[in-house]
């Protein structure tokens, strides 16, 4: 005990100084520790709220998309159109029907077909459009009505379109060949054909025709240089485009 008292007496000033320092440090650091804890806790809370809001937004967008698609499908299925039904049906006339229906549905709504109806000529799966004419022919009838649901007319339209495209292609090829390969005959060319030659305008074309009328046919293409206003330069630019055969 005496030894402890001796130590205390000897070092009490230092001990007091250490204790006071610890107290001061505690007072200074404690608010900072609390603030840091609060910030960390707040960040965790904000992150949790953000994730919840994101999940909520994502689920909401998906629900809205599904809802929009459902509304569109329901609108399309409820939309009404009017078609004109003629020919071998029990009740011909204008029929109001859903837009997503086909020919067989509108025939049924018209009371069905008559006994002499020729359904072999009709595409029953043809999809309806507003103002469509639906014609059901009778057996043996030579149909004169233009209706898109008739198989024979559809095939003929396809053939006509194919033939028309082929004819247009042939004409285009002939025009291209005429422009690139054929030559203008100086002895039979019209004014329009002559003006297509390099360096030949309306006036020179008239002079070529006048020369031809006065002197007879050109014997060679070189005779073209005898026409007033056509010199060597113009002749060289069009020599490969002309003939006298």
TrEMBL record:
CC annotations in GO: type II protein secretion system complex
Entry-linked InterPro entries: Competence_ComEA_HhH, Endo/Exo/Phosphatase_dom_1, Hlx-hairpin-Hlx_DNA-bd_motif, RuvA_2-like, Soluble_ligand-bd
Keywords: Membrane, Transmembrane, Transmembrane helix
Residue intervals passing through the bilayer: 15-33
Recorded superkingdom: Bacteria
SMART domains, A to Z: HhH1
GO molecular function, one term: DNA binding
Region (Disordered): 154-184
UniProt domain Helix-hairpin-helix DNA-binding motif class: residue ranges: 192-211, 222-241
Gene Ontology terms describing biological process: DNA repair; protein secretion by the type II secretion system
Pfam family for this entry, one: HHH_3
Name assigned to this protein: ComE operon protein 1
High-level lineage: Bacteria, Bacillati, Bacillota, Bacilli, Lactobacillales
